[in-house]
Specification:
It contains two helices and 33 strands. The chain starts with a helix and ends with a strand. The strands form eight sheets. Strands 2, 28, 29, 30, 31 and 32 form a six-stranded antiparallel sheet that branches. Strands 1-5-4-3-33 form a five-stranded antiparallel sheet, with no helix packed on it. Strand 6 and strand 7 form a beta hairpin. The chain has one domain: 6 Propeller (Neuraminidase), CATH 2.120.10. By secondary structure, it is mostly beta strands. Bound molecules: fe (ii) ion (FE2). Fe (ii) ion (FE2) binds next to strand 20. The site of fe (ii) ion has 8 residues, from strand 20. Its EC number is 1.13.11.-. It is an enzyme of class 1 (oxidoreductase).
Length: 461
């Protein structure tokens, strides 16, 4: 990032872009890496090009940071920009007014489905990358995907299907899609909504898709900006449930108190057949505060708070509103879970405290026991910023604990970066015992900017 943009935004060091792509082998490890962790941890995030003054740092080109672990060793660190159309200088809006879904940043998430590793951003097509993070190119699933693809698809752990959606500023405003377990796009269905809203995430259960139709709408007056969405008091707020096993099923909507949600923790059907949705909720004033920071990157502004919240929707009842309940009063974000329980009842959610750019909270990784309401945490030193903690189930491979596997039997992987940006570590924690701290810390060869989302990609066995 050039000096002008640093001065303009005055970003803390742990958010500043790195200037180049490197590869370093043989990384120092403190503690003992579980040998069963054999694969790659890959994380995405915005990273301006050298000399580039992005209009908005969080919309910058995606950069993947990867760490290769094998048999107790940290073999390499490597970082690569995702070569999208935007990276090559093309505009998202073409000269004749069309949207170029390949000219986006691909900067939000990275995941693997059916042997494709995809870098994702919610306003464009996914971009396929190789296991060594080189870009293959945009992926439209054989020409079948004609909308953007959310950065938060949901993998059904039983069927292997990948549920996702695309939203846009022009009709169709919202489209539901599903890949089969082999990665073929087998279903696309337009969902009727009044206008384009910023829909960052959604949820699935065994039988339903859960839509979050919330009052942050596309506004033409902001169209020149990189994130042309704004809170809209007139829109209202609602959650929708739709059977995903009935082609063409209609959505049933439930009103909720106005709020915004970036991230879903989990949803499931309870014993009475009700849909329970746990997610991280911003009250209107907190969204306003967070959105000012996200758009302006002004670190002098107050941080918006976001708390774990529950909504209960009853498909069998006659109600038109959802029951709501706040689950905790701490400000958390980036919820993760054991992905083998997605859409099913799950006991544990993992979140981070202090991840927002201007948060005044010291960072921590928090493990919620949803059943008991209790939580445990790993608290970091004040000079450290933490990113999303990805849960990796214990595989039962070499070095894995013996005995039956509990839901939390596994590891949490996250990148911690000094707030001055000078150094980073990959932390591995035992998810059954967060307060014990990392079982292993991998010294990364550079300060890795705190980014968005990532995945553990185990070697195929
Ligand atoms: Fe996200």
């Amino acid at each position: 990032m050039d000096a002008d943009s640093v001065a303009k935004y005055d970003l803390p060091g742990h958010l500043r872009s790195v200037p180049d792509e490197i590869e370093v082998t043989g990384l120092p490890v403190t503690g003992a890496l579980p040998p069963e962790l054999t694969g790659r941890y890959v994380r995405n995030g915005p990273n301006a090009l050298p000399g580039q003054t992005t209009a908005q740092p969080l919309a910058g080109p995606g950069m993947l940071h990867g760490v290769r672990l094998r048999a107790g060793r940290a073999e390499w660190y490597r970082n690569r920009w995702v070569r999208t159309g935007a990276f090559q200088g093309r505009s998202f809006v073409t000269a004749d007014g069309r949207l170029d879904l390949t000219a986006t940043s691909a900067n939000t998430h990275v995941m693997r489905h059916a042997d494709r590793i995809l870098a994702l951003v919610e306003v464009g097509l996914p971009h396929e990358v190789t296991p060594t993070l080189d870009t293959v190119g945009p992926c439209d699933f054989g020409g079948r995907l004609t909308t953007a693809m959310t950065a938060h698809p949901k993998l059904d752990p039983v069927t292997g299907e990948l549920h996702f959606f695309g939203y846009g500023m022009r009709p169709p405003y919202l489209t539901y899609h599903r890949l089969d377990a082999a990665g073929a796009l087998v279903h696309s269905q337009e969902i009727e909504v009044p206008t384009g809203t910023m829909m960052h995430d959604f949820a699935i259960t065994e039988h339903y898709v859960v839509w979050l139709d919330l009052p942050v709408t596309f506004q033409w007056g902001l169209a020149g900006g990189p994130v042309p969405y704004q809170w809209d008091d007139a829109y209202g707020a609602r959650l929708g449930i739709m059977r995903h096993d009935e082609p063409g099923a209609r959505v049933r909507w439930f009103g909720i108190d106005p709020c915004y949600v970036f991230h879903v923790g989990n949803a499931y059907e309870d014993a009475e057949g009700r849909i329970v949705l746990d997610a991280v909720r911003y009250a209107p004033a907190d969204f306003a505060a967070m959105w000012r920071v996200a758009r302006a990157m002004d670190m002098t502004l107050a941080a918006g708070r976001s708390v774990l919240h529950r909504w209960i929707l009853d498909p069998a009842g006659t109600g038109v509103t959802a029951r709501e309940e706040q689950l905790d009063d701490r400000s958390v974000e980036m919820p993760t879970m054991n992905d083998t329980r997605v859409g099913r009842p799950a006991r544990y959610l993992y979140t981070i405290i202090g991840g927002a750019p201007n948060s005044q909270d010291d960072c921590a990784i928090v493990k919620y026991d949803i059943e008991s309401g209790k939580s445990t945490s790993y608290d970091l030193a004040p000079e450290v910023a933490i990113g999303e903690a990805v849960f990796v189930p214990s595989s039962g491979g070499p070095g894995a604990p013996e005995g039956p596997r509990g839901e939390d039997d596994g590891w949490l992987i996250s990148i911690a970066t000094l707030r001055d940006g000078s150094a980073s570590q990959l932390l591995v924690l035992d998810a059954t015992d967060l307060p014990a701290g990392p079982v292993a810390s991998v010294e990364l060869p550079r300060g890795v900017p705190t980014g968005f989302h990532g995945s553990w990609l185990p070697d195929e066995v």
